[in-house]
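As the next step, I selected for study a record pairing a protein sequence with its backbone structure tokens, which the following lines show:
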Amino acid sequence: MYDYDFLNVYNGRRTPSTIHANSTEMTAYFRRYLFQKAISVLKWDNVPDTWSLDYMLYVLYACGYVCVLKTDKYGVIPQYGLRSGYNIYYQPKGFIVSSPILGSQERTIGIDGELIKLTPDYFGILDMIDYYADLLAVAAEDLGINMVNTKLAYFFAAKNKAFAEAFKKAFDKMQSGDPAVVVGDKFFDDEGNPLWVPFTQDLGKNFIAPELLQMMSSLEQKFENDIGIPNLNGLEKKERLISDEVNMNNAATFSKGEQWLDNIRISLDRVHTMFPEINISVDWRYSQNESMDINSRSVADGPDDI
């Protein structure tokens, strides 16, 4: 276990704010949700039956690359490994795979092994996942707090502890949905006035749950924009969309994903060259034409409109 001071120093190197949702189950939920969404963007075909596609994708997207090598027992397989050495362009020359089953094996890229690379810098997307998961977890916590804080509250005037407990039991029944809570005369003063008053504020003004839900939806759309999933990206609020707006949104949606797809395809070409028995192909699960269709919903007719 780490103490508070250590966590402060560690988190201070990651984000400038002192508010963090890291290492919570809420953040873990969003991290898992966003990661699975990210690996669903591309569709893989002709993956060998002996390969675990789930394993390969998790390694590829988490680490930024996955090693491909041929073994005597299992044939050509994908494995997690560490890059080793550098060439004249500071690109890795090889990789080391170590596992209880395979032992430790060092391979040279282009000679007896290859890498399937996701990003140009050989890093995964966990930093992006963590960023959005942290924001969504904070927003979800704010949503829960706001929903609780906008409930109607009451003040109770109790003469002693016994009266206080009686008020609590009656309030619990009311909050649990009991339509008729029967109370005795001890809940009233000598003149018959109730010993409780509602604590009323402008609940409608303080209720910002719809805005928080919209913000969470906007954060998820921004994440989808980063990984290449077609989305409206805020354009759904506009009555009229001109062609340039839709085209700019499509470009923003596919720019980073296109780079990932290009890196994977170049890597697969090298894998096919070294291991002819492997014939994996990859493409968009959602095409740019589908993105255009999504962004063109409810668009008004006009000479400059879609």
About this structure: The first helix runs from residue 4 to 12. The first strand starts at residue 42 and ends at 45. The chain has a mean pLDDT of 80. The beta strands are 42-45, 65-71, 75-79, 82-86, 92-99, 103-108, 114-117, 153-156, 196-199, 281-284.
